[in-house]
Amino acid sequence: MAIIDTLIGTAGQWVTTSNPKATLLQPLDWLKKTGSYAAVNRLIGLAIPFAPRNGFSVEEMRPGYVRAKIKLKGNKNHFGSLYAGAYFLVAEIPGGVMALFDLGAAYTPILKEMTLEFLLPANSDVTVEFALPPEAVAAILADADATGRAKFTLEGILRDEKGNHVATSLAQYRVRKKGFQAQA
Fold first, then answer.
1. Which Pfam families match (predicted)?
2. Is 1-177 a domain of CATH 3.10.129.10?
3. Which is deepest, 25, 33, 54, 66, by most CB within 10 Å?
4. What's the chain's Rg over C-alpha atoms?
5. In 10 A of CB 117, how many CB atoms?
């Protein structure tokens, strides 16, 4: 576990110190950005092999923010649009990713409940964005440090490639602090 915790911390540092707008015109910045996202997606694939097999990837991360994508290819349902399970996959994993990278490897994220409201069929890849303001992250950390656990809610807007709002997710997460011992 210590190796994974170190990898998560290192990948998190790479991501947070990389320039998300870097292009090939800034080759070193571009390599750092693309390398850090490759590392994050590889870690996700090691933890949840189902995710990369189904076309899931983190597209952008920074403190308190994550954007992820699921590909339509390989995830079509019986009438050619995105399968419901693929919506769930792209809406669920980013909450754990945020918890690991914003809170740190000392905290274990757990999904407690999730609902999806389907608005339109998606006939393309779908992206979702999540954000937690710094005050919310600080409150989660304070609660988990004091009690060994904390809860938070993430709402995601899922969009197709044309920008259409195709679904909304609402997820209830809990985090547990590893090794927490209540003070007597």
1. DUF4442 (PF14539)
2. yes
3. 66
4. 17
5. 9
